[in-house]
Amino acid sequence: MQGTLFSTENLCFNNKIQYDDITIPKGEITFISGESGMGKSTLLKLFNGVLTPSRGRILYEGRDIIELDTITLRKEISLVSQEVFLFDSTIKDNFKQFYEYRDQTPPTDDQIRKFLTLCSISFPLDKDCTTMSGGERQRVYIAIFLSLLPNAIMLDEPTSALDDKNSDIVMGNIIMFCKKNNISVIVVSHDKVLADRYAENHLEIGKSVV
Amino acid sequence: MWFKVKGAVQLNILEFSLIYLLLIIVLVIMRKSKIDQTKLLLIASIRMTVQLVLAGFILTYIFENPHPLFILALLMAMILFSIRRVLSKNKNINRGFKWAVSLSITISGIFVLAFFVLVVVGETFFNPQYTIPLAGMIIGNAMTGITLGLKTFTDNLKTGRHKIDTLLNLGVTPKKILIPYVNNALETALMPTINSMLGMGIIFLPGMMTGQILSGTLPTTAIMYQIAIMVAICTSVCLTVFCSLNFGYRTLYNKRNQIMISRL
User: Fold this and answer.
1) pLDDT digits 0-9 by tens, A151-164
2) Range of the domain at A44
3) If contacts are CB pairs under 8 Å, which of residues 154-183 in chain B contact chain A?
4) pLDDT digits (tens, 9 = 90+) for B93-105
5) Searching chain B, which residue's CA lies closest to the CA of residue A155?
6) Does a structural domain hold residue A210?
7) Contact A94, A138 (CB under 8 A)
8) ipTM score here?
9) A chain contacts of residue B176, beta-carbon cutoff 8 Å
10) Per the domain annotation, does A209 fall within a domain?
C-alpha cells in the first residue's frame, strides 16, 4: 500500500447522509457499493469538492480538502459521472474541446486511438458522437477522462450502459492501464461480478454498523 | 404642390373615437377564426386607452411645469417599472443577480440617455421634450433586451447541466464554463435590435420617425433622430445585457468553485 488517498472523519452531507469513517488507499482499485439513495454518488462529489459536507472532514493525501484549491483537486481527481456529456461533434473534436477547456494541447490522433481502444471503441476519429449508442458514448466519455492522466479516477457506474461482456472487457482494460500508470481507481458500481473480480478494496455504504 | 408639411391636424374627440370602429373588424375576424381572445382584446384596448390618457395628463402637466424633480421622478418610475417587469419574469434568480440586473438597467439607461440628450441633441438633461420620450424608448428596449437575455441565459444553463457538471469535474473554472453562456445570451438579446436596424426604412418606417413626420418635422431631421435613437437603443440593450450577465454570473458560484444552478 502506498498510503491513503482519501479518508473521512464523521462525514455528513446535508444533515441527511451520515457516512461511516472511510479510508481509501492510494494506487489501488476500490469499489463502493450500497443501495440507491445511500449517497454513493454524493460521496464522490464530496471528494472532488463539487459538494461541501455539512459536517465532518475529508482528507486527501492527509490534507483537509477544505484547505485545497478545488480546481487543482478536480484536475488530480477526475470524477466521471453517470450522466455522459459529449459535444455534438466528432470524437476527435470532443477531445479537442475538452482539452481546450483544460488549457492543454489536444492529444495526437495516435494517442486518442490508444485511449479509445482501451475503452473498446474502434470507430474512426471523425465519427459523429451524436450517432452513437449510449454505451458507446459512455466509453468515449471515459476515454477522454482517462487520457487526461489524473492521479485518481472516480468512475460512477461506468458500465451502466454496457452489456456484461463489454463491461468486463472495458473495466479490465481500464484497471490494467491505471495500475500500470499508478492511477488510483474508485468505482461506484452495482455490478457484484465486476466488483468481485477487480476490487482490491470493497466498501459497502449504508449497511455497516454505525 | 397641393400640400405642404405642417403641424399635425389636431384631432377632435369625436372624430378620434371613430378609430375604435376598426376594432370591430378585428373582433369579427377573431370570432370567425375561433380565437378565444376577444376579452383580452377588449381589456387591452381599454387598458391602453386609460394608461395613455393618464400618461397624457401627466406629460401635459410636466411640460407646463418642467421642474427637474418631476422629470427625475418620472425617470425613476420608468426605471423601477422596467426593473419590476424584468424581475417578475425571472423570479428565480438570486438576490445578487437581481441587484446586478437592476443596477445595469439604471446605469446603462441613464448613461445612454444622458449622452443622447446632452451631447447629441445638445439640450439640458431636464428638458422634458427630449428626456422623457427618449428615456421611454431607451429604457423600454433595454427592458425587452435583458428579459430575452436572461431567459436565454437561464434556459441554456438549465439544459446544459450535464455539460456544466462534466466540465466542473474536469477542473475547469466556473468562469470559463459560464462565460460562453453569457456571450450566447448577449448575442440572442442583441439580434432583434440589429435585425430591425437591417430592415429599417425599407420594410417599415419606424415609429418615432413616423411620429415626427406626422407632427410636421422635416423627414431629413426625422431620419437623423431615428438613426440616433436606433444606435442609442442598440447601445443600451448591449450595455444592459452585458453588465447584467457579467456581474450576475459571478453570483452563481462560490469560493469552492461550486456552481449553483439551483440559485437561478
Assistant:
1) 999 999 998 888 88
2) 4-204
3) 161-163, 165-173, 176-177
4) 999 999 999 999 9
5) B169
6) no
7) no
8) 0.93
9) 101
10) no
